[in-house]
Amino acid sequence: MIGTLTIGRRRGGIELLQFVRDKTSLIFTFFFPALLLLLFGAIFGDSYDVPGITASRVFTASMIAYGVVSTAFITMGVGIATDREDGTLKRLHGTPVTATAYFLGKLILVAALTAAEVVVLLAVGVLIFDMPLPADAGRWLTFGWLFLLSITACGLLGIAASALVRNSRTAGAVLNVPVVALQFLSGVFIHPITQLPGWMITLASFFPVKWMAQGFRSVFLPDSAATLEAAGAWEPVRTALVLGAWCVAGLVLCLLTFRWTNTKE
Fold it and tell me: pLDDT digit string (tens) for 7-22?
């Protein structure tokens, strides 16, 4: 009997193939965050007074968080809403594909897409804005666990959020509202984050995006940039704990809300 992991891997391959064939999704998923980075970097240029820090470098690091949320959360949520509406999920329910295998396939898809998205953003930062990449292995180790926790939390939350979407036509609009709001509250589009009112920073601290953006800045910016954060430090332990808690919360929400068909049927 084929195991759940094997079925999940096969589903991941099918999901990737289907996504690559959709040229419109491919272009917008990869190039919209890169376009925003180009605009922010060109507009704000070298507007920081801190030595070794430019606005383009800050936005390159912060936009990785946006790329992860955009790809893992929205792509996951829209994809499941579409699968539910066009009957794909209903058909899969009559096959050996379990919910766990289906989730695994989707997580493989968003992990591959998000990794490619990060490569595109870093290429823009390095080639256009002359952003140096870290030479310290410790920073890349931080990037590794931060990336895994981020895509897991956002992917699981995307699965849970798909239950809120009534049809695939409105999925993008519904899921983009919290994403865009959290980008502003979490210091992705506005940095230093201390420019925001205190209550906004406190509110953002309950959600993963603020910690993802701060974490990726800790990887790609010099240590002197930590003084620009709300706590004046990178807070790696707290970042890991918050993102880990959201992974658990996302898994629980998935188990409570996932359904194979629309409730109207």
Answer: 888 888 888 888 888 7
Q: For residue range 120-142, list pLDDT tens digits in order.
A: 999 998 998 888 899 999 999 99
Q: Of the candidates 243, 225, 153, which has an alpha carbon nearest to the alpha carbon of residue 187?
A: 225
CA distances from 23 to 18, 239, 262 (A): 10, 35, 27
| Full DSSP string of 7-65 | HHHHHHHHHHHHHHH-HHHHHHHHHHHHHHHHHHHHHHTT---STT--HHHHHHHHHHH
Phi-psi region of 95 (alpha: psi -120 to 50; beta: other; left: phi over 0): beta
**Residue that is written with structure tokens 């959201």 in the block:** 246
Q: Which residue has the tokens 């995307």?
A: 158
Residue type, 26: L
Question: Are the C-beta atoms of residues 159 and 258 closer than 8 Å to each other?
Answer: yes
List, in sequence order, every beta strand (DSSP E) within the chain: none
User: Cis before residue 192, ω within 30 degrees of 0?
Assistant: yes
Distance separating the N- and C-terminal Cα atoms of the chain: 32
